[in-house]
């Protein structure tokens, strides 16, 4: 009997409109994901939208706006765990971040629809769709553009092959030379050592450097007594 007493046609119509809005907007966002053959496609996006709308709408009916706010906070964290399931690590590459973010945004669409903020839900869907489509050419253009060496983040090393008797003095000389060039050193280690010579390797703290400045450092080191060779190298960070 409680179910019959709780039945309210107007409330049911309001819920239907909220869920329908979430369904339609989720379909629009999900269709783009399905077209690009992403891990979370049309059905997943729609289910996230409708599910979020249903939870928020139910909280609105039972406890009002305060209860809906609490449910929305749980939706935000819950969908975050769901999105983590589509993120995959392949060697040094990470895939699925954009799909996870889209699912998270889809939950926002549903939450807005469930809270009867239909125009807000449409705006969120519009911006999510724009982010996944309109920004794609810009992303591709940036990825294709060559990055100037002076602005690339990398691990920089300065190497010097020195006579075995000069290892400690030249370690200090190398540190001072780099400091004068405003390149603080993270560490200087002896990577190879024999009875005749050794190789000093100075790893810089800086993640960007100017090639001409490091060329000057190595040129100075080559003129130091006991140094047979000096060079620098960079490994670009992925």
Automatic annotation (TrEMBL):
Domain (MgtC/SapB/SrpB/YhiD N-terminal): residue spans on this chain: 19-139
Organism: Enterovirga rhinocerotis
Compartment(s) where it occurs, according to its Swiss-Prot or TrEMBL record: Cell inner membrane; Cell membrane
Chain ranges of the MgtC-like C-terminal domain: 156-232
Keywords linked to the UniProt accession: Cell inner membrane, Cell membrane, Membrane, Transmembrane, Transmembrane helix
Membrane topology: Multi-pass membrane protein
Pfam families: MgtC, MgtC_SapB_C
GO cellular component term, pick one: plasma membrane
Listed InterPro entries: MgtC-like_C (IPR048640), MgtC/SapB/SrpB/YhiD_fam (IPR003416), MgtC_SapB_SrpB_YhiD_N (IPR049177)
Name assigned to this protein: Protein MgtC
Family classification: Belongs to the MgtC/SapB family.
Role played: Virulence factor required for growth in low Mg(2+) medium and for intramacrophage survival. May be involved in regulating membrane potential by activating Na(+)/K(+)-ATPase.
Lineage: superkingdom: Bacteria
Membrane-spanning intervals of the chain: 12-30, 42-62, 68-88
């Amino acid at each position: 009997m409680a179910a019959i007493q709780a039945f309210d046609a107007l409330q049911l119509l309001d819920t239907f409109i909220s869920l329908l809005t979430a369904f339609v907007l989720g379909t629009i966002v999900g269709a783009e994901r399905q077209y690009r053959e992403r891990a979370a496609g049309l059905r997943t996006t729609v289910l996230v939208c409708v599910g979020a709308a249903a939870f928020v709408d139910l909280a609105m009916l039972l406890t009002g706006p305060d209860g809906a706010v609490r449910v929305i906070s749980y939706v935000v964290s819950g969908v975050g765990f769901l999105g983590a399931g589509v993120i995959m690590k392949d060697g040094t590459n990470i895939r699925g971040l954009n799909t996870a973010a889209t699912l998270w945004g889809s939950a926002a669409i549903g939450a807005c629809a469930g809270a009867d903020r239909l125009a807000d839900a449409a705006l969120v869907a519009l911006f999510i769709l724009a982010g996944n489509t309109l920004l794609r050419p810009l992303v591709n253009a940036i990825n294709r553009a060559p990055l100037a060496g002076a602005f690339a983040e990398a691990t920089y090393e300065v190497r010097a092959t020195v006579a075995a008797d000069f290892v400690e003095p030249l370690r200090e000389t190398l540190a001072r030379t780099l400091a004068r060039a405003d390149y603080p050193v993270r560490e200087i280690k002896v990577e190879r050592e024999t009875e005749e010579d050794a190789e000093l390797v100075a790893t810089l703290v800086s993640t960007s450097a100017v090639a001409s400045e490091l060329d000057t450092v190595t040129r100075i080191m080559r003129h130091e007594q006991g140094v047979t060779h000096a060079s620098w190298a960079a490994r670009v960070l992925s």
